[in-house]
Amino acid sequence: MIRVQTSGLAENLAELTDIERNQIPFATVLALTETAKLIKERLVGEMRTVFDRPTPYTLDSLRLIPATKQKMEARVWIKDEADGAAPATRWLTPEVYGGDRSHKRSEALFRARGILPEGKFVVPGAGMKLDSYGNIGRGQLQKILSGLGAQGDRHQNSTDSKRSAGNRTRYFVMRRGSEPIGIAERTGTKRSQVQILIAFISKPGYSKALDFFGIGEREADEQLPIQFAKAFERAMATRRR
């Protein structure tokens, strides 16, 4: 978490009058919050550069907590909850710290039904059509899960209807000998009409891609004095006389 605090402002406050000092709390809160906003904007801009086609969800994954007079500290961190999706901290923090990728919900479903071996993870295969952000489309993943009988809700799995039964034969686990290597799609009887949609791989790791703390510290060092001067000028101009 990036914390923007008042430690760099002391040298600017030494020669203030009593009237001016009365405006300091307001100016400090405003300066800390405005600096944190700039840090957040700078980090979002960096995401556009270091990530390949980041989704709107990724670009909206940061939370800003403003400073208050009771807590002279503004904070920027990754959102830790979401509606109907994995918390951003689960998949974005490895890009900040490096390290192993966490499990996806689809991996848990595959593993629970004996499709995905322990210690293996899934990535798009050569035959998978990706969405405009380079990810597996939700609709395509749901069809695969349903065809393999891997949906969490059994009523969402393939049934005996003609269309649904087609999914049961269309998608299957491909093996090399006895080892599962991925999930494939069969579109015909020829070998050329079989393609891997999802490959099973060993645990993937990430190097640090987003210089979260470095960007935050540099932006705070540069902007906090500037934002305090602006905030203090505003405070003095609007103070009660």
Descriptive keywords:
2 domains, 241 residues
Structure description:
With 241 residues, the protein is α+β, with helices and mostly antiparallel strands. It has two domains: 2-99 and 206-238, no CATH class; 104-203, no CATH class. The chain is 41% helix and 18% strand. It has eight helices and nine strands. The protein has helices at residues 18-22, 24-50, 56-59, 88-97, 105-112, 138-147, 162-170, 212-238; strands at residues 2-4, 62-65, 74-78, 99-100, 120-124, 171-176, 179-186, 194-202, 205-206. The strands form three sheets. Strands 5-8-7-6 form a four-stranded antiparallel beta sheet. Strands 1-3-2 form a three-stranded antiparallel beta sheet. Helix 2 (24-50) runs antiparallel to helix 8 (212-238) and helix 6 crosses helix 7. The radius of gyration is 26 Å and the shape is rod-shaped. The model has no long low-confidence stretch (mean pLDDT 83).
